[in-house]
Write a structure and sequence with these properties.
Distance between the termini: 44 Å
Number of helices: 7
Helix content: under 10%
Radius of gyration: 29 Å
CATH architecture of the largest domain: Beta Barrel
CATH topology of the largest domain: Maltoporin, Chain A
CATH class of the largest domain: Mainly Beta
Structural class: mainly beta
Strand content: over 45%
Largest sheet: 24 strands, mixed
């Protein structure tokens, strides 16, 4: 240690003496900036791009060569800015680049093609060895496909769950096949406290994936394999063509693009609960053609131990009120098989125009027996004796053996890119069929047989024109889409017609037959037209302004409205950004909320707090054609700072005021319906207004070149106001100034990360689910870990360990067993949901060529 100290002191002394003697310690030659411009989508070099250097000296401009290279020499020390433009690409502006004497700065400029598929401008300039700032004017997060691979997650919702401000909600328990939606900043979802599905916009390649029945898309049917990234924009007024139709935020899943040269990937993984997961991908460019093909399969047996047995109906009565009946002893199941495929072909018509044809399909089969099952402490409809177990020791069971749900989601689109009037023009057409079959044809007698189908047909056209004019980037866009929705169709393709059984006494399907005539078909069509005008103006090297206006026209509501948005981004130095935005947005109701007819059949009605014990299914369901759309005004203020290669800090504060909040409520039935045993009608209504406000914080702290820590925290206050006392009493779980159910007030997470130059990475961390979490259980932590290491020349081994301590890992949901909500007149029963249990997985990912 003494030797080291002496050497250090000697070096300092030498430099000091040389300086005092007039001999420079560093040469004082000129400096330079050099770099390369490439396509952010496929990695190809961008030739003939114009690169302008502004800063301490007179502005200079140059164009890139055939390899995308450029350079500026003979520069004096100071701070500089790069602006890069090219035909068919969005402009990219760099953060301030500080350069010292005799220093060469290496930069990489990624230009994003002008396209309808993105909601976040990904054009950015990376200075070697420095963290890239988010230069957009909105609070946004991008999750890459590689992040999913490294963390061992095979479903889209897993990493979204750890994003500040995002809460994942399951329809039932945490099984892999359960319907899953999300909320952003407390808004959206359809199974939690807000009980709506309107305020979050879910897109695939910039196009709505809206399901007419649920209001948004089921994330559990999506795997990250066919997506290059997932973009999350938070707050009112996203940047997509349809961005005005959102309040909480926008999620956009961007499909992978063909690469500029040959590449391939083969990934195979296995894990707990019978998990088998593999992905095959191939891409190449052949002359004017470029293509990419991907096939993915995810198969898991579910989280039910094989030794678990249940007693299911139909039951054989013993003839005694004190002896429980015996049914069919069997194993519950919850298998999910998900297959996804993508094919994309690009053809270059010339130097300034090309077309892209894309086809995707995400199809799955889900075993409903374990998904919907729930052990019962009392035999259905019987109250004389508490039968906690039958003579064989098994719990009674409510479920549907041999009940399967099948989903397909075929979609194709065609994009045409060209130049028009000195700007970039993109035209797109797409069509998408969202098909869902509930198939109980294999169920036992007295539960058999039925087949129900719901279909959403989405289609639309879009056009976007973008041009850089001086320091302005002008965007004009038009779009329109339609959703034709049918739910409740029966008897198709040789299957049996809709036949089930309903008991007029206790509501359980075991006595009275239900025929086709009893199944009510719901259908309707919703057409949305929208227009966007946006100007991104570089007022100075440090200040950027965005002005945007959306015009929207919805056929089902006769809504014609204009939503403005303004944002400002200020860069005081090379490592910091301050952003502010304000705007309005709206959300239309779900199509099913408007057109659903009154359904009074006992087989299809729902339970409620006012139902007598003898009849647990006493409320009818109906749509509400008089419902109003929601509207909102939102503000966002954010700060971001970066340092070193991984260090960063981000803080966002927001407030959104929502009007005409839509909520499902059970309203009293008419006297004529009450005579039929229908006490209430569950329908969507506009209850009042709501406030969403909070603070989001995230930071990465590097300890050294190999170790860092990542942490996040957010608080999201979400509550209604101006709710009439009569509505508070009617709904019970919507109370003035009280946090909504399912919206956690606090969310915390952290990870310790390791990485080095030999491609070895690892992490261990936890996420905290606090009070009011979407699982409706007491607060808890879930811990995860992972390790990735090179295997051979092209492979990477990934080891993952999820939910290490098996927290909140119940097998089934516990109806009315969750943390009670205080409610208007007392505790309001909630259902406890479970998370995915402890699991270990390993996968090998082999990559070649351009996909390395």
């Amino acid at each position: 240690m003494r030797t080291f100290v002496r050497a250090a002191l000697f070096a300092v002394a030498c430099v000091t003496v040389l300086s005092l003697a007039g001999l420079p310690a560093l040469a004082q030659g000129s400096s330079s900036i050099a770099g390369v411009v490439y396509n952010a989508s496929n990695g190809a070099a961008v030739a003939n791009a114009k690169v302008t250097l502004n800063g301490a000296a007179t502005p200079q401009s140059t164009t890139t060569d055939k390899n995308g290279s450029f350079s500026f020499g003979d520069l004096h020390p100071g701070t500089y800015f790069l602006r890069t433009t090219a035909a068919l690409y969005e402009p990219a502006e760099s953060a301030p680049i500080a350069i010292g004497a005799s220093q060469t700065i290496d930069v990489s400029v990624a230009l994003q093609p002008v396209t309808t598929t993105n909601i976040t401008t990904l054009g950015h300039v990376t200075v070697t060895g420095q963290r890239t700032l988010n230069t957009s004017t909105v609070a946004s997060t991008t999750i890459s496909a590689s992040a999913y691979t490294a963390s061992g997650t095979s479903q889209v919702q897993d990493l979204l769950q750890t994003t500040p401000g995002v809460t994942i909600e399951q329809f039932d328990n945490g099984a892999p096949g359960n319907v899953t939606t999300l909320t952003i900043r407390g808004t959206g979802g359809f199974v939690g406290g807000t009980n709506t599905g309107y305020e979050v916009l879910v897109l695939q390649d910039g196009e709505p994936m809206r399901n007419g029945e649920y209001g948004d898309d089921d994330l559990s049917g999506l795997t990250p394999a066919i997506y290059s990234r997932i973009e999350v924009d938070k707050g009112v007024g996203g940047t997509s063509i349809f961005g005005a139709n959102t309040i909480g935020g926008t999620v956009n899943l961007v499909t992978i693009d063909p690469r500029s040269s040959e590449g391939a990937e083969a990934e195979f993984g296995v894990g707990s609960w019978g998990l088998v997961n593999y992905n095959l991908q191939q891409t190449d460019t052949l002359g004017r053609f470029a293509y990419i093909l991907d096939f993915h399969q995810y198969d898991v047996q579910g989280y039910i131990p094989s030794q678990l047995l249940v007693d299911v109906p139909p039951f054989t009565y013993s003839g005694s009120a004190t002896t429980p009946p015996i049914g069919s002893i069997t194993n519950p199941t919850e298998n999910m098989l998900l297959r996804s495929g993508l094919g994309k072909i690009r053809y270059d018509f010339g130097s300034s125009s090309y077309g892209v044809l894309t086809f995707t399909d995400e199809a799955d089969v889900r075993d409903q027996f374990g998904l919907l099952g729930d052990p019962e402490s009392v035999f259905l409809g019987e109250t004389e004796t508490d039968y906690s177990n039958d003579p064989l020791g098994y719990p009674y069971w409510f479920g549907y053996p041999n009940n399967f749900v099948q989903n397909t989601d075929p979609k194709w689109s065609f994009d045409y890119h060209t130049l028009l009037g000195g700007g970039s023009l993109v035209l797109r057409y797409y069509t998408n069929w969202i098909n869902r079959w509930v198939n109980g044809n294999g169920a036992p007698p007295l539960q058999c047989c039925y087949l129900q189908k719901s279909v959403d047909h989405l289609s639309g056209t879009e056009g976007i024109w973008e041009k850089a004019i001086g320091n302005n980037d002008l965007t004009l866009a038009l779009g329109g889409n339609s959703d034709t929705f049918v739910y409740g169709e029966c008897g198709e393709g040789g299957f049996n017609t809709c036949v089930g059984y309903a008991d007029s006494d206790d509501g359980f399907p075991d006595d009275v037959p239900v025929t086709d005539a009893d199944i009510v078909t719901t259908n309707g069509t919703q057409i949305e037209d929208t227009a966007l005008v946006r100007d991104d103006y570089d007022a100075s090297d440090k200040l950027k302004l965005t002005f945007a206006g959306y015009y929207s026209d919805y056929s089902d509501l006769n809504v014609k409205r204009f939503d403005p948005r303004f944002a400002v981004r200020y860069q005081p130095d090379s490592n910091s950004i301050v952003r502010f935005s304000v705007g309005t947005g709206f959300a239309s109701p779900r199509l099913s909320d408007i057109v659903s007819p009154l359904i009074t059949n006992p087989f299809l009605t729902v339970s409620g707090p006012n139902c007598p014990t003898s009849n647990q299914f006493c409320n009818a369901t109906s749509g509400n054609p008089n419902i109003k759309g929601e509207s909102a005004l939102g503000y966002d203020l954010g700060y971001e700072r970066a340092w070193g290669s991984v260090g960063d800090l981000s803080v966002d504060a927001y407030r959104t005021v929502l009007n005409n909040h839509i909520f499902d409520a059970i309203v009293p039935a008419s006297p004529s319906l009450q005579e039929q045993g229908i006490l209430g009608i569950e329908e969507p209504i506009n209850v009042a207004n709501s406030i969403y406000q909070g603070l989001e914080f995230g930071a990465t702290i590097p300890f050294c070149n190999s170790f860092s820590a990542r942490g996040y925290y957010n608080t999201q206050s979400a509550y209604p106001y101006d709710v009439a006392p009569s509505l508070e009493n009617l709904i019970q779980n919507v109370v003035n100034d009280e946090q909504y159910m399912g919206v956690p007030l606090h969310k915390v997470g952290y990870s310790l990360n390791f990485q080095n130059g030999s491609r070895v990475t690892g992490f261990i961390g936890g996420d905290w689910y606090g009070q009011n979490n979407s699982y409706n259980v007491p607060q808890f932590w879930i811990y995860n870990a992972g390790l990735s290491a090179p295997y051979g020349a092209n492979g990477t081994l990934h080891f993952t360990w999820r939910n290490i301590f098996n927290k909140n890992a119940f097998i089934y949901s516990n109806f009315d067993g969750g943390v009670p909500y205080s409610g208007y007149s007392g505790p309001y029963d909630t259902t406890a949901f479970s998370s995915a249990p402890h699991s270990i997985g390993v996968s090998l990912d082999e990559r070649w060529g351009s996909l390395k």
